Amino acid sequence: MSKSGDPAKTMQVKEEDVVAVQVIKQAGVDVKKLLDLLIAGVSAEFTTYYYYTILRMHCVGLDGEGIKEIVEDARIEDRNHFEAMVPRIYELGGSLPEDIREFANKAACPDAKLPENWRDVKEIIKVLLAAEQCAIKSWAAVCEMTFGKDPRTYDIAQRIMQEEIEHEAWFLELLYGRPSAHFRRRFIGESPHAGQHLRTIHG
């Protein structure tokens, strides 16, 4: 802190002095491009959490009641993905937009909006499935960029991707009867893979 005690006047760290960033740059990572991908990814996770809240609320009737818990697992785990990756964005010298509208507009995936014929539960599942498949592609791009070059970002991204792949399999099973080996989580939003990068996970 400066002599005046004003936090705004603290000395700024130069990017070239951040060894953790320089190491991955030297390994061939375009940090700016990576940050763009990460912000787009966490924006998609955050907005998906919001839209999944609406989708879950509209899983009504006997058919809908049977999938609410599965939707809730995916919903909370998507929020966990946001929580797991955001610290890495700041470690790399990035930051989230201060305006949430600007943030939402950066999402890597389309909004998972409630379908017009939402009383047909299968239509809701189609929206859920599309969102998970887009997320897989989003995190796969991060994994491809960081594999063998940025172990920390790669580890977080591949753990998130593992859970997105599981989510896809759940919704494929519900929609098409394709076996997914789905088992109930030990608790809602367990995040068995990405949870290792969460500071607030319970269980």
Automatic annotation (TrEMBL):
Q: Which UniProt keywords apply?
A: Iron, Iron storage, Metal-binding, Oxidoreductase
**Has UniProt tagged this entry with the keyword Oxidoreductase?**
yes
EC no. given is 1.16.-.-
The yes or no answer to whether the keyword Metal-binding is present is: yes
One GO cellular-component annotation of the UniProt record comes to:
cytosol
Q: Which Gene3D superfamilies match?
A: 1.20.1260.10
User: Which molecular function term from Gene Ontology is one that the record holds?
Assistant: heme binding
One GO biological process from the UniProt record?
Answer: intracellular iron ion homeostasis
Binding of Fe cation occurs at E45, H81, E132, E164, H167
**Protein name stated in the entry:** DNA protection during starvation protein
- The UniProt gene name for this protein comes to dps
